[in-house]
Structure formats: structure tokens, C-alpha cells
Amino acid sequence: PTSTPFPLVALVSGGKDSIHNIAQCLSVNSQNLQKKSELSTSHHYTIACVAHLHPTNPSSTHELDSFMFQSVGHNVVTSCYSRCLGVPLVTHATDGHSKFRNLEYDNENHHENDEVEHLYALLQKVIKRFPHVKGVTCGAIFSDYQRNRVENVCQRLGLVSVSMMWRRPQDELLREMIDTGIHAILVKTATIGLKPQEHCAQTIVDLYDYLMKLKDQYQINCCGEGGEYESLVLDCQLFSKRIVIDEARVVVDSNDDFAPSGHLIVEKMHLEDKDFRHSPYLQREGDSFYLEHPAFAEERQCLRLDSSSPSLGAPTIFIPSSENSSKIQIIPRQIEDDLRRQLQVNCAMRENYLHFSAHYEKLNRDDNHSAATLEHEVYHIMTQLKAHCEKHDFTLSNALHVILRVKSMKTFGIVNQIYCRFFKHSPPSRVCVEDSHSMRGGRIALDCIFGLEGKLAHTPEGKKVLHVQSISPWAPACIGPYSQATVLENVIRMAGQIAFVPETMQLCARGDTTQQDWWQQEASVCVKNLQQVLGALRSDLSNTIRCLIYVDTSFFDATFDVTLLKDHFVSQCSSKNAQWVTNFSSETLHSAKRWRQPHVVVVPVTHLPRSAAVEYHLFAITDQVQEVTSDDCTVTTDDKSLSALVNHVTLGRLCFGSVEILFGDFLDADKFGELIHQCARVNPKSIVRFDVFTKDRVKELERCAFERSILGNGVIIHFHEGTEPNTRILFECVQEFSQECETE
Q1: In angstroms, rounded to a whole number, what is the distance separating the alpha carbons of residues 61 and 650?
Q2: Is the dihedral of CA 437, 439, 441, 444 positive or negative?
Q3: In Å, how far are 152, 286, 347, 639, 716 from 355, measured between CA atoms?
């Protein structure tokens, strides 16, 4: 299949990171193409132009000491880079001042003279001149400050941020830059061990060993991302000409004994031709030039010779909308009354946590004039979510995790447009599935858990959010208004992971393989992505508490053994050298690194995002947890141990517990009611949740549950129409670890 170009604008400062990121973008999928293997994506990246911010007074100012952008060497960039790369250069002035220095940039209350707004103006120029540009390259490696601001500007302009070096080991990157032929010199130093008079104008090749020594000795960032030094690229594989410096001088900004600082001013330079007239990356279409990996140019030439070759459509990569096109008008009174009557809301409040659950019963769909639209349903359930959280002194910013079920995944675009209006900053992690069988009334159901950040904001346990929207090889970017994960009190609540190839944000290629092969391929990609996200939070798969694996039933025939999925995940967890415990005891209560095998449940659904076959939904803990235990077991009613099981669960010693109970083909309603009644007596700081998977008799069990009047006392019950003959219940208990637990 042919590959469609996806044009980018490259932000260039002159430094090695921004240049190497361009090369990494151009190389995505080129190896697959050269091997003639099936592409995992329908597009590849090209560079339409480069963009640069220079000082407001470029002739007299060389160093701005900006929080965001490198300014040293700006005269070299503006004079030479367009001619070296062969593509247009767009520039804009900045004074380098940062007015808003919080980690997450607030664009709603932005400052007109902030340097981030100068970046916004620069990219506005780019879009006006090159309206086909769809994304922006960013050379960030570990700087959340820089990445967040580029992503903020991209979202406002409807662009995608592409950071191919994000979270890659810096020593590995520096070595890779040297090996791929980047000739860069230091133009600024500002850290212990580097002296401007001695080290400015030296190449990264000459300083590589010394930088590695400083990294080991003083823990500096060897790529200089922490401001230790700045560099200027004079030649690389993308350049058709090399830059030669004729005159330069060093300016010392500080003679500090421990960490002197200074920068290099290039007074004169000239360009020198290389062995080839044009870079192999430089392509031409009409009067326009752009950068593209040579392999894709060769592919296009072959397609011109073979007109029968199929072509793929435009890339389906997600581009955030700068404006919300969905306009919700006032809901007619008759429809609003129907929505209010049919919306079943359950809330459970325990200490700093609130659990909200809502779904619709039978809605009026007979009269077109009085029937609620999907927009009405979504807007009403979201406003009720907001109202209930505020009633309990929460705000939407306290939301930690959302489980969204829709009747049809085809309508998810409409749902998302309204949903994103409520979660604008630091959104919760989210899982979305199509569950058409259990959606008896409305077209949307929602679960949300809140953590009261207000009481914890100034403590280490305050809510933390991992929200990366940039495309990179690290892990899939957030393709909607959600975060990869949220952390509160050492509990990690992760977004659902499908088998996205991170670099391209497309599902991994299944190819012409058997069911056994491709499910394992998708599962492996999902687990790898989960591990990457956990690694960024200083955790790993061995810290998993619970994993739900949603499977699209249309991909799996009746012969498929779901235990294969469970065993595959558990094997990945155990490969992390965790010491599994087989029995709960006080001895293991205080052991932070010895864990019970995580509870894994396979849940059949009718459809998943992007038509994926599997989606992984994970809860884990951080490595900082010191006194937590996990316990789970499986019993049957024939074991005559149900009462013992309940007593064990209600001891109040579990922080996280999962119990799966098998009832054969019949579940006695009274016994079910007694079970949930007793489990509701768990430590009052707990939130208890039941997932009931049963083939029939749902109404009878629901009635029994409501008669016990336990839904308002920290117990949440969800019924699922199971496809298996056996009825089973998954019980989950989540509670704050207390001093009483430690004493016991």
C-alpha cells in the first residue's frame, strides 16, 4: 500500500535536539517500507517548512535566557538554515519572557506578552502561508514544561505535536546524534564542570566522554535539556550545505566559581557545498520544496510506473479541534423531565473519595418531537455529574478516572465533543467501550471517581496527572480529552490502552495471520504501552492491582480460550521479577515488593475504539507504597465457604481486594442480597463495587439489590449480560489504608 504524506512544520532553535527530531520524524516507517513489509500506518511525515523565534532586537541581543527557547545562534539560523535544508523559514520575534510559569499553561488566562503567545503567533503565520500543515515537531526529551506549552498552542490551532525523542534515554540519544552525523558545537554553558572560555565552540563529538563523566559525577542532563549547555548544528545528513564559522567570540555572563556561564556569538559565517548538490531528503513538487525520507519518494515513483497500485486515503490521526462545534441549546422541558426521571444516579462518598455512577432506563422515543437526542442525553448526564460533585464539595478538576459506555461507537464523536467541554484541564484518565447489549435505555452510561485534591493539594499525595498529547515512540498520545493516568495517594488509575503503534497512532498491522497470532500481537503492543506509562510514574507491571481486558466479541469465535489473554498478561507481570505471595498474612502486610498475582478479568463487549480487538484497563500502585496488600480468590457456592469468605473480606485489613465468586448456572437472589449486605459492612472508609456477569435474571437481581438499600452506603453494583453460562460476581474493595489496619 502507498503511504500518504503528513506535512509538519519543524520548530528549530539551531540546537541538535530540534534537528535530530526532524530526522527521526522523517524516518518513521521507512524501515518497514524498505523491507517491503506491510506498513502499520497509512501515512508518513514530511517537513513543509521550518519555524524560528528570534530576539526582538536581533542585531544587539544574542541571549534571552528564555525558559522555552534557545536564542544563542539565532543569526546563524535566520541566515543559513533555509538554504541548508532547502525549505522555507518562517520567523517571529520574542522577548523571551515567561509571564505564566506553572507547569501546565493556562491559555484561558494567558498573558499577551508571554513567550508562549509569541509561539502561537509564529505558528499562525505558518498556517496562513502553509495551510496544509497538520503538525509541529518539538525536540523535547523530558521537559514537561516545554512539551505542555507546545501542546497547548497546537491544540488551540488544531495541530498535532510530534516529539520523537520524548522520554528516550539521553545518553543513548547523544550517541545516536553523533553516529548519524550531526556536527554540533556548544554555544552556551551554564553548569558545573563546563567553562565558557574552554568549552564553547567545541563539538559534541570531542566532548562526549567528558559529558558522560559529568553525568555520572554530577547527574547533569548529558543532552543539556536542563539548561546545562546549548548547541548549534553546523552540518547533518539533512543539510545540502555545511555552515563554516569564520569569526566568533565568547561572552562570559557569570564568573561563578562552581558553575560559570557564558555564550558564543558568531560574528561571521559562510556556507560550503557538500559532495552532493541536493540533500537526498529534499523533494520538489511544482515550485514547492519539502523534506521527505528518500524511501517514500522511491515508492511514489514506483506507483507512477504501476498505475494499478492501490492508494490509501488521508491519515486518520487525531487532530484536536480548536473550537467545539457542538452547540447545546436549552433542552425542552418535556425532554428534560423525561431525562431526569429515567436517569439512575448512584453516589458513594467515603472520606476524600466520591464515586458517581449514572445510566438511563427506558427513554421516550415514540414521539420525534419529545424524544431526547444523543446530545441531550450526554449533556444531561454530564451536567448531573457536575452538580453531584459540587454538592459534595468537589470540582470536575478532582476527577480521577472515568468509565464511559456507549450504545454505539459510531456516535462517540458527538459524545466526545460535549464531554471535552467539562474536562478542560488535567482531565481524568478514561476507558470507553461500546456495550450495546446492556444499554437497555439510553445511549450513554458513565462512572467517575473523584479524589478530593483540595485537602491534599499541598502534600505529596496531591493529584498528579500524566497527560502527554505529543506523538512519540514512548507511548500512545492522548487522542481525546483524557490523561494517560492519574495518581492520588499512590494509586495509579490508567486510561484504556489499545494496540496503537505510538509513532504513528495507528493500530498495529494484523496482516494475514491466524486469530491466535494477531490477538497476541495486539495484546503484546498493549502491554508494552502500559509498561511505558507505568515507567514514567516510577512503577511497573508487577505493581498491578487489577486488570480488565475488554474484548470485541466479533473478533473472537466460540473456540477462543479467554484464559490465554489472562495468562499472557500475568506472564508479563511476573517477568518483572516480582515475588508473588500465595497467602494473605500479617507477615506480608508490610512488605512493599511482594505482591499477590493481580486479578485479571476478561469482559466481552460489542465494539472498541478504532475497531481494536482488545483494550486493557489497569489499576496499579506506585513504588512509593510502603504498607499495602492485595488479595483475591475464587470460590464456588459448593465450597460452603461463602460466609467465611465474606468474613475474610470484611476484616477491614484489605487496602485493595478482589474476589471472584462462581455461582454455576443459578444465583439465588436472597443469597446474593445477603452477600452484598454483609460486604457493605467493610471498613467505613471503603468503596465497594460489584460487577455481576449473568446470562439472565438481571431484573430480579437488580430488585434484590435495591431492596437491600445499600447503594447509598458505599456500594456500587453493575450488571453485565454475560455470554458465559455461569453467573459470576467480581467484588472489588478500595479503601484508604488506615492506622487501624496497620495495628491489626
Answers
A1: 69
A2: negative
A3: 30, 59, 6, 33, 8
DSSP per-residue codes, 649-689: HTTS--SEEEEEEE-TT---HHHHHHHHHHHTTS-TTEEEE
Q: State yes or no: pLDDT of 243 exceeds 90.
A: yes
Model pLDDT for residues 181-220, shown as the tens digit of each residue:
999 999 999 999 999 999 999 999 999 999 999 999 999 9
* Bridge partners of residue 355, in order along the sequence: 348, 449
Residue 376 — φ and ψ, nearest 5°? -60, -45
* Residues 202 and 186: beta-carbon distance below 8 Å: yes
C-alpha dihedral, 418 to 421 to 425 to 431, nearest 10°: -10
pLDDT tens digits along 95-146: 878 877 777 787 676 677 889 999 999 999 999 999 999 999 999 999 999 9
Question: Is the pLDDT higher at 332 or at 238?
Answer: 238
Higher pLDDT, 6 or 595: 6
Distance CA 428, CA 486 (A): 7
Task: Round to whole Å and give the CA distance between 261 and 74.
Answer: 19
Going 117 to 118 to 121 to 127, the CA torsion angle's sign is negative
Per-residue pLDDT for 402 more than 80? yes
- CA–CA distance from 744 to each of 456, 532, 651, 679, 740 (Å)? 26, 36, 10, 19, 6
Tell me: the pLDDT tens digits for 616-627?
Answer: 999 888 865 433
For residue 112, CA distances in Å to 51, 58, 107, 119, 628 come to: 20, 21, 10, 11, 48
Write the DSSP string, 371-409. SPPHHHHHHHHHHHHHHHHHHTT--GGGEEEEEEEES-G
pLDDT for residue 154: 92
163 SS3 class: coil
Q: What is the pTM of this model?
A: 0.78
Which stretches of 169-308 are assigned E, i.e. beta strand?
Answer: 183-190, 229-235, 241-254, 261-273, 282-285, 288-291
Q: What are phi and psi of 504, to 5 degrees?
A: -120, -15
- In this structure, the chain runs to a length of 744
DSSP state of 78: I
Contact 472, 162 (CB under 8 A): yes
Strand partners, 546: 599, 619
Beta bridge partners of 451: 353
Owner of C-alpha cell 567553562 = 195
Residue 158 corresponds to which cell in the numbers above?
A: 488544531
Distance in angstroms (rounded) separating the CA atoms of residues 46 and 342: 51
CB 551 within 8 A of CB 565: yes
The distance from CA 424 to its chain's CA centroid, rounded to whole angstroms, is 15
Separation CA 72–CA 138 (nearest Å): 18
The residues, any chain, with a CB within 8 Å of residue 535's CB and separated by 6 or more, are none
Q: How far apart are CA 676 and CA 710, in angstroms?
A: 8
Number of other residues whose CB lies within 10 A of the CB of residue 670: 8
